[in-house]
Write a structure and sequence with these properties.
The protein has 210 residues and is α/β, with parallel strands linked by helices. It contains 10 helices and 5 strands. It folds into 2 domains: 135 residues, Response regulator (Rossmann fold, 3-Layer(aba) Sandwich); 56 residues, Winged helix-like DNA-binding domain superfamily/Winged helix DNA-binding domain (Arc Repressor Mutant, subunit A).
Amino acid sequence: MAVEKPIRVLCVDDHRLMREGIARIVAVHPDMEVVAQASNGDQAVAQFLEHRPDVTLMDLRLPVMSGTEAIRVIRRHDERARIVVLTTYQGDEDIHGAFEAGAMGYLLKDAIPDDLIHVIREVYAGRRVVAPEIQQALEQRASQPVLTLRERQVLELIARGMRNKEIASALGITPDTTDAHVKRIYTKLGVHDRTSALGEALRRGLVHMP
């Protein structure tokens, strides 16, 4: 029996093979179809506005504009937009940021195809999908100290290899203030040196390497 109105899907990923693989998985199911693809955040917004898909699959690591920012922009245009994050990022900050931006589901790329199809259908029906491991990450984040905006900026510059004096100059603050920020970052991350701080920040998704 023919499906009258298939679920219309927008696939956003900077890897063509990933996009085409998702399109093939979706094509097997008569109740859904990929109507558009995008390879960066700007294209994601443009394709969403042109096609108005029922469900958008959004990677987080995208050129031009990050996936999280693209979610925010799309949701500003249409607060009813149903967006599922499909990514390799599994840090608690990545997950929190995606849901805060307006995502309704979060799925890792190593998920089996049946899980992807299930999530698309659930989100299309208006249900938020949070797998147990994703919920656990969110709960762990809620129990940990939150870095301030300035501390996040300092951490980003640490990740770029800057020393404290260089960070002070880049942010227009004194070296003593920078030292104080770094010490608070160590305390909040539960570490004692720059190498450990960077490792913990990468694990949690507070920073990402290029």
